[in-house]
Design goal:
8 helices; nine-stranded antiparallel β-sheet; 9 strands; 345 residues; alpha+beta
């Protein structure tokens, strides 16, 4: 499956020229603003904490992003034997099978029937090798149901957080002095109605190093490959995605292929612009592992509560899978701060 990065609909139009002129006048397009990563993170942490605490209910502090837990399920993460030699690094260095936990979530909506971006977080256990941060033996992957983020840089992300805290998200996208029209286009394109989280493709959106030495840069994708597919809504309503997972697993196991995409051209596949989709024709994803989910009980109040207490961080990883770029550096520190707030540490 290939996601074509088509041009935004305003490109080549008078509106597009206006947006370009506004970006030039406002100085957008680079890192801009003159703020350091420390300053950006400090302000993000303050604002994210204020948003999370304002949205807390029944003494539960929700996640800032992907707040709706659809399900957490146990899975098997099996690394293949027949993968290209250059990809045999870190977790993929040798064929093996690992226990894993997968969290499926909605990016913004609590109602599964609404258009939204879906999230998939993966925690692989019993891995061997030094980790960059966190618990030994754990490798996290964080993915979304669209191959790019809606913001390009940490500065853009901070601008969005400011707008969200002030309840002026539309102004973030359409503010004439500083428009974010591409961001709006991505959000519209990425937000969809889905019948089941088990039938969706997911991408890491941001790049990672592959190997403790060398200069390989990669992104990840998870592609469904089950024998069964949901064809209509199951128990349509606010929890229909959870119901779809349960119904699917009753029919048979759910499976995904875990793929790696190598950076072919640093200019067209940049590290520092998270809004750019890396062309799969120029560099196809290569399957290195298969994820299998068997039938299980996962929707009890106790299971959902335990799922809600879980946390994931792209820096909870083997050194061979180090996150790259400024966006990943911001994510590390903001995610850590938010997890401590949710768990009242």
């Amino acid at each position: 499956m290939n996601i074509k990065q088509s041009k935004p609909p305003w490109q080549g139009s008078p509106q597009g020229l206006f947006a370009l002129a506004a970006m030039i006048v406002s100085g957008r397009g680079g890192h801009g603003g003159g703020a350091t990563i420390d300053q950006i993170v400090d302000e993000m942490n303050r604002r994210v904490a204020a948003i999370m605490l304002a949205e807390a209910k029944n003494d539960i502090v929700p996640r800032f992003n992907q707040p709706k837990t659809v399900a957490c399920v146990r899975a098997e993460f099996r690394v293949h034997e027949d993968i290209p030699g250059e990809l045999k690094q870190g977790l993929f260095s040798q064929p093996s099978t690992y226990p894993a936990m997968l969290r499926f979530a909605n990016a913004t909506k609590m109602d599964d029937s609404k258009r939204d971006i879906r999230g998939l977080s993966i925690k692989v256990s019993n891995v061997k090798g030094p980790v960059l941060r966190g618990a030994p033996g754990i490798q996290d992957f964080i993915l979304n149901s669209y191959p790019a983020l809606f913001v390009a840089t940490p500065e853009d992300f901070l601008s969005f957080i400011r707008a969200r805290q002030e309840d002026k998200k539309l102004r973030f996208f359409l503010n004439p002095p500083d428009p974010h029209l591409k961001s709006l286009w991505i959000v519209i394109r990425a937000s969809k109605k889905h019948l089941s989280p088990l039938d969706i493709r997911y991408w890491s959106t941001v790049p990672f190093r592959l190997g403790e030495t060398g200069n390989q840069v990669v992104k990840y994708a998870v592609t469904p490959c089950s024998g069964y597919k949901t064809t209509r809504a199951v128990d349509a309503g606010e929890n229909q995605l959870r119901a779809a997972i349960k119904a699917h697993l009753k029919q048979g196991p759910a499976r995904f292929h875990f793929g790696v995409q190598r950076q072919a051209d640093p200019k067209t596949m940049p590290i520092e612009d998270a809004s750019v989709i890396w062309d799969e024709k120029a560099s196809p994803f290569q399957t290195v592992a298969t994820i299998t989910i068997e039938d299980q009980a996962f929707d009890s109040p106790e299971s959902l509560a335990a799922c809600e207490r879980s946390s994931f961080n792209p820096w909870q990883c083997l050194a061979a899978h180090a996150p790259l770029g400024r966006m990943n550096e911001v994510r590390r520190r903001v995610y850590e701060h938010a997890a401590r707030l949710r768990n009242k540490e």
